[in-house]
Amino acid sequence: HVQLVESGGGYVQPGGSLRLSCESVSGYIDPRYAVGWFRQAAGKEREGVAAIDSDGLLTYADAVKGRFTISRDDAKDTLYLQLDSLKTEDTAMYYCAKGPMGRIPRTVDEYKDRGQGTQVTVS
């Protein structure tokens, strides 16, 4: 079990940028597992945003391709999500979590050990 803590959210105008971080404060993020970000807007279902597997394979939701960048620093047990060209529809609570071993998660239900989330508001 790993405890993850997200940070970096906030208020930003459309077109702005934020950098989200996700640190392990208990245990470590086993590099054999995929890790990723998902989000949930008020009144909506959870939505996978981006993920990275143990080989560095990246995947992005169509809605964020070309605007968001996921990266991981296993030496620091930290996951990042760079959010650029933000839109109002990106407003949501963003969570990081651990995915399955060795592959990208197929659905958000495959994520475990999510953090408490960090709010991103674009307005």
Q: What is the mean predicted local confidence, pLDDT? A: 94
Shape: globular
What proportion of the residues form beta strands (DSSP E)? over 45%
- For the record, give the distance between the C-alpha atoms at the N and C termini, rounded to a whole number: 36 Å
Q: Which stretches are poorly predicted, pLDDT < 50 over at least 5 residues? A: none
Task: Please provide a written account of the structure.
The protein is mainly β and 123 residues long. The protein contains no helices and 10 strands. The protein has strands at 3-7, 10-12, 18-26, 33-40, 47-52, 58-60, 68-73, 78-83, 92-101, 118-122.
Condensed summary:
The chain is mostly beta strands and 123 residues long. It has strands at 3-7, 10-12, 18-26, 33-40, 47-52, 58-60, 68-73, 78-83, 92-101, 118-122.
Which secondary structure elements does this structure contain, and how are they paired or packed?
Elements lengths: L2 E5 L2 E3 L5 E9 L6 E8 L6 E6 L5 E3 L7 E6 L4 E6 L8 E10 L16 E5 L1
Parallel strand pairs: 2-10
Antiparallel strand pairs: 1-3, 3-8, 4-5, 4-9, 5-6, 7-8, 9-10
Give the tags.
mainly beta; 0% helix; six-stranded mixed sheet; 123 residues
